[in-house]
Amino acid sequence: MAETQIKVYTGVILGYRRGSNTQYERQMLIRVDGINSRSEASRLIGWRVAYRDKKGRVFKGKIVRVHGNKGVVIAVFDPPLPGQAIGDNVYIYPKGVILEF
Known about the structure:
The chain has one helix at about 40, and strands spanning about 10-20, 25-30, 50, 60-65, 70-75, 90-95. By secondary structure, the chain is mostly beta strands. Strands 1-2-5-4-3-6 form a six-stranded antiparallel beta barrel. The radius of gyration is 14 Å and the shape is globular. It has a single domain (about 10-95), classed as translation elongation factor selb, chain A, domain 4 (Thrombin, subunit H, Beta Barrel), CATH 2.40.10. The two termini are about 25 Å apart. The longest helix is centred in the middle third of the chain and has 5 residues, at about 40.
């Protein structure tokens, strides 16, 4: 049985999605490495996101939409990520793939 190559992206958590009076703590803005336009980022909608903290806990989420025109995406996590996650790396992989940490 031949194994297929699966594209796994990395990204950086920029912060919570927020407005002037509201902060959506389940929704994080993520800049994906190698994605620089809205059309490229729209291909990632529905992909899964995994974040591993320093204690070894794994938080999983899903990309739900594009934010702006520079390739930033919005991912929803349940449970929400802690504030210490801002600036850390995440893995972005297709739906149906299981990542092992």
